[in-house]
Amino acid sequence: MRRLLELFRPRPELDEGIRARLSQWREMPEPSPSTPLSEARFVVVDVETTGPNAHRSELLSVGLVPVGPAGVELGGLEEIVLRWEHQKIDKENLVVHGISPTESSAGLESSEALTRVLEHIGKCWLVAFRADFDRRVLGRSLRQRLGVGLHNPFLDVAMLLPGLYPEGTAGLHSLDDWLGHFGIPAPARHRASADALVTAELLLLVLARARRVRKPDLAALAGIGRAQSRLRRMRL
What we know:
The longest helix is centred in the C-terminal third of the chain and has 21 residues, at 192-212. Strands 1, 2, 3, 4, 5 and 6 form a six-stranded mixed β-sheet that branches. A hairpin with a 2-residue loop joins strand 2 (59-68) and strand 3. By secondary structure, this protein is α/β, with parallel strands linked by helices. The chain has helices at residues 2-7, 16-26, 91-97, 101-105, 110-121, 131-146, 157-164, 175-182, 192-212, 218-235, and strands spanning 42-49, 59-68, 71-72, 78-81, 125-128, 154-156. The protein contains ten helices and six strands, in the order H-H-E-E-E-E-H-H-H-E-H-E-H-H-H-H.
């Protein structure tokens, strides 16, 4: 029913400048699944929302961290905060994401914010921890605010890590679990950019192990994630 309602939702009215930028984004080249990992470029994504429901919660901010052949590209780290002047922000969730109503009201208008997100991610493969939540929230926001679909492939670090580091990690589930296991400090957890940055550090470990076990390209890496996801569903 939710999908059906979205089909009949009026397309958003966008100004000429935004439409031109979206046209440029649509023409960006897509990387081949056979791209070697040594040449691949990723963008790590983390979203903060008004609540924990991926189907109803509104997008508050997006953290973006590019990872290229040379590692994390800190110069490209970005946190884009959307403007929500009248959006009710749950007080309990405010403690989690740390974005106050004042900060939110000073953010970017949604079409500008989301166009900037698209310009940052291009057609890169996206990476997140528990990626389904980020994919659903960001995809819904792009459909509703810009009228575009999010078709970038997603890799889920939460699936890749147990597939590549199975030894003694069966009890690790959360992002904090894995950060603690590898001794990665996380001084500002639950800000979108900070969470994306520590996820990018985990991605570097994923890429290093993948190359060591001769998983040479994007398609092979995605296969590890799918296999681990099927295994997880069988265990539930």
